[in-house]
Design goal:
five-stranded mixed β-barrel; 24% strand; two-stranded antiparallel ribbon; alpha+beta
């Protein structure tokens, strides 16, 4: 998908990012191969399946994907499309990342779109508040994709989900009603509410908005707590979509879920816009 694309190669030359050439050749080879086209087909036709409870009635809130989904995700992470701008000292790294992103999207959007894109986008936000962000930053920049359900400290790499939208507000985040109660333990809060549109709910950490006494605030919720227990992030159902089928999109209920405030109270909208839009 790279060597056969004269226009794309022209962009690399024109923008002065020849340093990405070898990476682009590798992504083009993978994303353009018969093997990965078959993986993309399988990942979209064998859709994610939600298991809310195990066989004896314990909540597990687990989304099962076809193995093809995980293989494509692994290749995404190995080729650094989620982390490249933050790990290289080279000209125009965001443009170089877009070259790789463009090719992966030609193959399959459900893997490289939301789960990969959110993992890439959260890095400036984490860096803006090192006291909280440094807990997860190294694992987010890892080139290893880890599908296991483990505490962040025990994984080889982290992926990110986003839980912003609520049914009563839609795109108006200020109308959100999810509440966050300060536990008095540093920046730790308990979050209770309902998120109507959560993409990639099996992400290791979720970026959420919730109301405090000061207004809309940003929080990071780990899916698995440090003690190995699942956080109280309950997946209610998966959405039935016209496309993007390989990626699970869900509704989620929070019941005293542990969240870590990132940024100032009441500045969640401003923090989101400043740090997560490029």
């Amino acid at each position: 998908l790279y060597l056969s694309d004269e226009a794309l190669r022209g962009v690399v030359e024109r923008e002065g990012i020849g340093w990405v050439h070898d990476r682009a050749v590798e992504v083009g080879r993978l994303a353009g191969s018969n093997h990965f086209r078959e993986l993309a087909h399988l990942a979209n036709h064998q859709k994610p399946r939600l298991e809310t409870h195990d066989r004896v009635g314990n909540r597990i809130d687990h989304v099962t994907y076809h193995p093809a989904y995980h293989e494509v995700m692994d290749a995404n992470f190995r080729t650094e499309v989620h982390s490249l701008p933050w790990t290289v000292d080279a000209p125009r790294p965001q443009t170089a990342r877009n070259v790789l992103y463009y090719m992966w999207n030609q193959l399959e959007n459900g893997t490289v779109g939301c789960p990969n894109g959110m993992t890439w986008a959260i890095v400036p936000l984490l860096r803006s508040d090192p006291e909280i962000g440094d807990r997860w930053l190294d694992k987010i920049l890892s080139t290893q994709y880890d599908q296991r359900t483990l505490p962040a400290a025990d994984t080889n790499g982290l992926s990110v989900a986003m839980a912003i939208t609520e049914k009563q507000g839609g795109s108006d985040v200020r109308a959100n009603t999810t509440r966050a109660i300060d536990t008095g333990d540093g920046c730790e809060y308990l979050l209770t509410g309902h998120k109507y549109f959560v993409s990639a709910p099996m992400g290791d950490i979720l970026l959420l908005t919730a109301q405090t006494d000061q207004g809309v605030t940003l929080f990071i919720c780990p899916r698995v707590l440090d003690n190995g227990e699942l956080n109280n992030i309950r997946i209610q159902r998966l959405k039935d979509k016209l496309g993007n089928s390989s990626n699970a999109t869900s509704e989620v209920e929070l019941v005293d879920a542990v969240g870590h405030r990132i940024g100032e109270e009441g500045r969640g909208v401003a923090g989101f816009v400043k740090n997560m839009t490029h």
